[in-house]
Amino acid sequence: MNNKSIQEFKECYGTWALVAGAAEGIGEAFTEGLANKGMNLVMVDFNEAVLHNLAERMKKEYNVMIREVTLDLSVKESWETCMKEIREIDCRLMIYIPAYSRVKTFLSNSHEELDKYIDLNARTPIHLVHSFISAFKDQQSAGIILMSSFAGLIGPPYLAPYSATKAFNILLTESLNSEFRGKNIEISVCCAGQTSTPAYWSSNPAKGRQWPPVLSPDKVADYALKNLGKKVLLIPGWQNRISFFILSRFLPRTFAARIANKAMQKVYPQI
User: Fold this and answer.
1) Nearest of 2, 82, 81, 93 to residue 40 by alpha carbon
2) What CATH number does the domain located at 6-267 have?
C-alpha cells in the first residue's frame, strides 16, 4: 500500500494534530514529522523551555501554527485540558507518547512511583482516547497512535510496572481497533525497542553493540506515521520485528522471557 500524500493525510486526520509529550526524544521526532507534512500542532509537554524552543523552530522551519500547552500529563484531569485545546479546531489526529519509566528492581519503586506509572502511562491515555473518539461523528475520520514498548510485549525484569502499563496500552489498542473497525477511526500502538532518547541514556545502559540495535527517534516516528491505519501493532526496526516474530511464533513464552531476562542483564549489568 502506498503512503498517504500530504493532502490525503490532511483529509484523513484534519489540519491539526495533538502531540502529547511533544518536546523531546520520540515526541520531538513525531512533532517534526507532522510539521513536515504541514500539520498545525497542539504540543503538550511539562518541560516549558524545551517545548517553547521546539515550537519556535517548527514555526520558523515549516510555517505551521502551534499551540503550546505546558502540562504534567500525570495529573488526574490533564486529559480534559488537552481536549479543551482542540475543541474548536480541525484536530483529528492524536499521538500519546509520554511514559514514566525507571530501570530498577520492583521493590525499589515507592508507592508514589507506582501511582505515577499508572497515572501517566495508563490513566491519562485511556481517558484521552475515550474523550477524543467521543468527539467525532461517524462520518469523520480520525487517527490515534499510542506509544508502547517492546517491554509491553514480553515483560523483562527491572521494568515490571512500566512493562505492565505498556501492555495495557497494547491490549487497549487491539480491543478498540476491533470495536471501531469500519467506523473511520484508525488506531495503532507503536512498540519501540531501545531508542536513542534522553530517557534511555539517563538509565545508564551498557555501551557497545546491541541486538536489536538502538534506533533513532526519527525512524520510530516515521515508521509509525507511515503505517497508521495499515497495522494495529507497529514495531519499528526490521531487527525488532524479526526478534518479536521469533520470540512470539517459535518459542514458548517462558523461554522467550528467559531470553528477555538475559538481554536486560547484558544491557544493565549493574542492576
Assistant:
1) 93
2) 3.40.50.720
